[in-house]
Structure formats: structure tokens, C-alpha cells
Amino acid sequence: MPAPGKRAWAAQLPVVRMGLLGGENDADRLARVDTYKKLLETTFQVPIKLMVAADYAGVIQAFAARQLEVAYMSPAAYAAAWIESQGDVRPLVVTQEQDGSTSYVSVMYTRTDSGIMSLADMKGHSLAWADPNSASGYLLPRAEFRAMGIDPESGKYFSRTGFAGGHEQGVVAVLNKQYDAGMTWTSGVGDVADGYSRGALRMMVDKKMLAMNQLRIIWTSRPILNGPLTVRKDTPEAFQQDMLDFHLALPTAHPDIYHSVDMGNGKGWVPVQHADFQPFIDMLQQEAAQRRRR
Q1: pTM for this structure?
Q2: Which of 104, 105, 106, 155 is nearest to 129 (CA)?
Q3: Which site from 70, 73, 222, 281 is most exposed, i.e. has the minimal number of CB atoms within 10 Å?
């Protein structure tokens, strides 16, 4: 771990503002990252101010407005932030799973009692997207559905679509029969009965909000690169290096704190580059082109 002490970059960043993506209720998010926040403050001797965004767009816009220095992001949110900020973002690390992979998957789920057994059965049924800036909850499944010849627009294949306001909220909406199915993210590895090894379903199972026998997984996407811990590119280079060193060391030095932030049982964090996320920028631009055609 980086040695504790005040850094020269603190003169430019007397407070480090960190964004937390939507998808989980605010109280749980803040409780989950409390020890992590305190360790950052102890190590670098600057206050950490947490910004809890109602949705992904809040973090994206805050980066573009230079109101955040660091945030955990989905790959699609990173791509949107890169576009909105004109390249003023840098990805540092992504989660590495226990099997060595650095990806997750998008899944479509229904209620076990719905009678819906497959994506083909979803024709004429309603679907909840998680968030318009979510790779797993919106962007990537739409791209895959189009490649399969399925028009994801409301009324074309699905009877109705809408945004649930986050991953957790989508599951609740499906359980409450507001939608027939929803989209979310999982590691795609581990025991399905536990909600996989990590992801939105696993978090809800761990919080006793969900029993996996209530849901049926009916579709799984191709692998999606895990979302990055991201810093603003115009921050001091020494700050960026400290953030990188801190996070690479955290899984070994403080595994309990790492797992509370990582939302599961990942193996650690590994460095990434902007080029790794270019496919998501391309997908966002294709989605924008589809909207213009409509």
C-alpha cells in the first residue's frame, strides 16, 4: 500500500470527490463503502466526498463538469463520460474474477412463475431496462438483439419497454409484476443459486432481498469487459498514480475492504487502457445513430 501521508497533489485537490453509480439504494451503497472511504482518507490525509448519483447519467455529467475526480463506472458509462468530457477520463483498473477473467455478462430474467422460458417467449411481453447508460442493462443487449433480427424498440418485439431506474430497482419491478422481464449484470460464474459470484443479483441475495428460486435466467450475453475505476485525466499525474497503486494493493492488504467495494468475491484488480473500452464508444455512437433514424 502507498505509505500514509499528505501528498503534494493535495494542494490542487484538497478534497477528493468520488462518484458512486446508481443501481443500488443509497443507504446500502454508503454503508458498503464506508471503511473504504476511511482508508483512503487515512492513507492520503485528505477528505473524500462521496457523490451518490440517482442514475448513471449523474456521474457521467459530473465528470464532464469537472465535479468529480474518481468514480467506479460501467463500461458504457465510461464511454459516455469519455464522449461528454471530450476525453478527460482515464480508466485505471477493472475487477479480475477468481477464474482469471475480467468480464461479466448481461442476463435477462423473469419470474419463475411467469411461464416465460426463453427469449423467444418474450415476444409480446414487457421488458425493463436498467439504465440508458448501462452496458449490461441496456446497451449491449440491444446490440445483440438487433444482430439476432429482434428490434428492441417498444411494441416491435417486446410489448412495452421502460427504464427501471437501476439494476436493483429492475428486479423489484419484475418481482412486483410491473414488468415481465428485466436486464441486469452478473459475473456469469459461480453458483446460480447464490446469484453467481458477484453482480446485482448476488448483492440482492446477500441482503436477503431476493431468493434466486424467484427468478429464471432466460438469456445470457457474450462477455462484457468489467467496468473501470476511472479518474479525471486532467488531475495531477501523481494523484492518478497514487489511485492506481492504492487499488492494486488493496485486495491483498485489506481483502475485506476490497470485497465490500468489489461487490462479490473477485480476485483483485488489474490495469486497463482506454483502447479496451473503444467498442463501447462505438456501440454508444451506433445507438445514437439508431435514435436519429427513428
Answers
A1: 0.82
A2: 106
A3: 222
